[in-house]
Automatic annotation (TrEMBL):
Protein's UniProt name: DQX1 helicase
Compartment(s) where it occurs, according to its Swiss-Prot or TrEMBL record: Nucleus
A single cellular component GO annotation: spliceosomal complex
Domain Helicase-associated: 7-98
InterPro entries on file: DEAD-box_helicase_OB_fold, HA2_WH, Helicase-assoc_dom, P-loop_NTPase
GO molecular function: ATP binding; helicase activity; RNA binding
UniProt KW keywords: ATP-binding, Helicase, Hydrolase, Nucleotide-binding, Nucleus
Highest taxon, organism lineage: Eukaryota
Length: 278
């Protein structure tokens, strides 16, 4: 549909993938080297700047591969939730996916046979084929990075700086995928579409019963009861630091936008003072 095409072009423009004539910018040309959604390509390129490429490639592979969490057979749901809790990361689902991928790699390295590997996956209610697919995708992304001579930073997963860097990289690509819990009970209003969504049951937040106020989400699914999938907590301050100003100004009016405007008003004097001190 023409509206979808216009929306896609507008999104590419917000991601700095187009030049003033509407052609691919230099940045857009590099983004197009990756067989991924533009937002994900942008996040990978941002991770070069924020030095968390290793972790961002794992996230990209895990969200591109099929979902790795299996629907637990009736009567085993609580067992599955308990097993998944082992991988839960307080920073959110993107970080939980890194834990799952790293645990799978470790289990593969320690298992003598493919059968042991599959048993490990079954024990944790995880899809072995999805995780193998994530390994293949990640290896392909590493090859692309090497071919176009982009730096791959050393793994540093777990450090405070690394977690902040990953959030900055994700926000660089997914600033259009932000939602706010409007009533404290998990009803998330998306900034862009003004639609209300709930956390997907596979979210680690769903498992830990914690409801963050502001989140970045990978995708929104109408078919799965209006749920947002792969969700991580972000701070409004960090969002305002990285969001393109003209994208923010084009957002429809909302209480969430007013709150973010307050954040700008609060941040502005600080940044002005810093400039004056320089």
């Amino acid at each position: 549909a023409p509206e979808s095409l216009m929306q896609a072009l507008e999104d590419l423009d917000y991601l700095a993938a187009l030049d003033n004539d509407g052609n691919l910018s230099e940045f857009g040309i590099i983004m197009s080297e990756f067989p991924l959604d533009p937002q994900l390509s942008k996040s990978i390129l941002a991770s070069c700047e924020f030095e968390c490429v290793d972790e961002m490639l794992t996230i990209a592979a895990m969200v591109t591969a099929p979902n790795c969490f299996l629907h637990a057979p009736p009567g085993t749901e609580e067992i599955a939730l308990t097993r998944w809790r082992k991988f839960s990361h307080p920073a959110g689902d993107h970080f939980t996916l890194i834990n799952v991928f790293n645990a799978f790699k470790e289990a593969s390295a320690n298992s003598a046979s493919q059968c042991n590997n599959e048993k490990w996956c079954r024990d944790y209610f995880l899809s072995c084929s999805a995780l193998r697919m994530a390994e293949i995708i990640r290896a392909e992304l590493v090859e692309i990075m090497k071919r176009i001579e982009l730096p791959i930073s050393e793994p540093d997963f777990g450090s405070k700086e690394n977690i902040l860097s990953i959030k900055k990289s994700l926000l660089s690509g997914y600033f259009m995928h932000i939602a706010r819990d409007v009533d404290g009970s998990g009803n998330y209003l998306m900034l862009t579409h003004r639609q209300v969504a709930q956390l997907h049951p596979f979210s680690s937040y769903y498992n830990t019963r914690r409801i963050p106020e502001w989140v970045l989400f990978h995708e929104f699914s109408i078919s799965e009861d209006n749920s947002i999938r792969v969700v991580s907590e972000i701070s409004p301050d960090l969002f305002m630091e990285l969001v393109p100003q003209y994208y923010f100004s084009n957002l429809p009016p909302s209480e969430s936008k007013d709150i973010l405007q307050e954040v700008i008003n609060h941040l502005s004097p600080v940044s002005t003072m810093k400039k004056e001190q320089k």
